């Protein structure tokens, strides 16, 4: 006799972008533990295969794709027949004060953080690959949405646009029973924050601003994504779920 679990993803096909590392990788692994069949994608084949080897269960698929490339995006969509859930996890950071935030830098970040995932979800919906009563989860940020910090304008505005797109999608996709939500993390311990932008002293000082006195872990975000993908959240859409250790309070 199987135990009742409203958070189960059994029988669901879930597409996860940016699954080669960080939050995307951990989300893929945890979703597989909950019974989902995964389609994982990213640009780095070696790292994607590393994620694949850590997935639980069978029937998972790896598709190497650069979502910023029109040909690559089209090839990805052509290989997917249906999905019951999508997690838009691919992202890129950049630090620059306003006076050095040039158009080329905006184009670079927005290409990965906004235009590519928006075009992906648009086509999945238009082509009816995204099934009725499916769930889409945008992995956004508190940056640019709930928290404004020096030097974070390019990244923050890309995430603000991303969160706005989530709400428009939630409004329009509801006609097919498709839910669209976002998770908005604070600082999470991934390679993105280990790029040498902060000294160890600066990082420790920043951690002290968090009431729970730590940065998030990728699994903290993955568990919330699972909730939004599952039937346990079937009456939730258009939500920005803040997961930030209390820093915005």
TrEMBL record:
Pfam families attached to this UniProt entry: adh_short_C2
Domain of life, source organism: Bacteria
InterPro entries, per the entry: NAD(P)-bd_dom_sf, SDR_fam
PANTHER family, A to Z: EG:BACR7A4.14 PROTEIN-RELATED, ZGC:101858
Similarity section: Belongs to the short-chain dehydrogenases/reductases (SDR) family.
Name of the protein in question: SDR family oxidoreductase
Organism: Bacteroides cellulosilyticus
High-level lineage: Bacteria, Pseudomonadati, Bacteroidota, Bacteroidia, Bacteroidales
